[in-house]
Design a protein that fits this description.
This protein is mainly α. It has helices spanning 2-7, 9-19, 21-26, 31-53, 68-78, 83-90.
Amino acid sequence: MYWLIARTRIGMTIRAGASNREMVAALGINIELVYRLVFALGVALAAFAGMIAAPVSSVFPGMGNQVLIVCFVVVVIGGIGSVKGALVARS
């Protein structure tokens, strides 16, 4: 994911759209489609993680509450726009 966001053209478009949506749209990029694709990729990764975690632990409603505080701390310390900061905050 880091390589995709930091090193590719689509990653550059995602970062630019997060910073200045109107400018990206003015350049002729369909930013709504980019947002939809990023959301779909996030959903696919979450579903894949759920499939991987299901055999290891029991699956029940609210099972994400165990890691909610840790995720919040990672976002606050690492920063929302910084992948490197989030990796440092996780360690």
